[in-house]
Amino acid sequence: MKHCKMVTVVSFFLKGKDTLATSCINLIIFIVSMEVEMISMAHRMGFLTTPYAFNPDEVAAMAKAGSHIVVAHMGLTTAGSFGAMTATTLDDSVLRVQAIADAAFG
Description:
This is TIM-barrel domain-containing protein. With 106 residues, this protein is mainly alpha-helical.
């Protein structure tokens, strides 16, 4: 990797309201804590870190872990072969993105 100009770590585990993993809350908490630790390690190693966050709690944890950029993720779309049964509306997305941004900068 020493020949690379930039290496980015993007984390995206199966979490969020439309995934199979939501049926097991303990698993989600475990996965999120592992993801935060991975971002922290990658940051300490000098990687550019850009994890997804689905809510203010996740973005706060990622910011504390040293993430450079946090992507506010609104969940799956309803189209295509991998489409979800429901999706966040544009109006709800605006509110969620603002809450995530507030937590990131707060």
